[in-house]
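Sample intake — Type-1 angiotensin II receptor-associated protein
Collected from: Ceutorhynchus assimilis
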Amino acid sequence: MPSLTQQIPNLNVKIIFLIHFVFISLSCMGFWATNAYLFYNSILIFLLLWSIFHGQLQEPLQLAIVVNGSSIILDILLLIMNFPYSLNGAAAKFSAAMAVLHLIIRPFTTFVLIKNLEERGGNTANIPNMFAGTRTESYEDIDRTATAAPQHSGQSGGYNFATAQPI
């Protein structure tokens, strides 16, 4: 009998998607968080869905790792600037507590996403260089494979059919 990870493709990414979805939903219930919190977390959710839909692509998973890693810093800044004070209601305090728990979980989910990227055949050393545009293309560079330039036969003024190369 195959294991659960073999039966359900991309199980780790689906679990991470569910964890982030629940914590983002609970964190946005209070009015203390700005729209920026919802914005960068929505981008993360989109990238995780893209990664689930295209199970073998590496780019959405690489971007999800970068967004999740940078969200750690953004969450810290958001919590420092907008943490609800004692006059706020229980909903604001609860949602802020969920945002703190979400912040604590982010490094672990980033680590699992990195492991999943390695399983897909991706090189994690390329994550800092993924915006550099160093991709391998499947085309032949005609400048490198061109034969030597045709030599002129000393005749000037026209096309020489005797030394012409076939197309």
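Post-analysis note: The longest helix spans residues 90-119.
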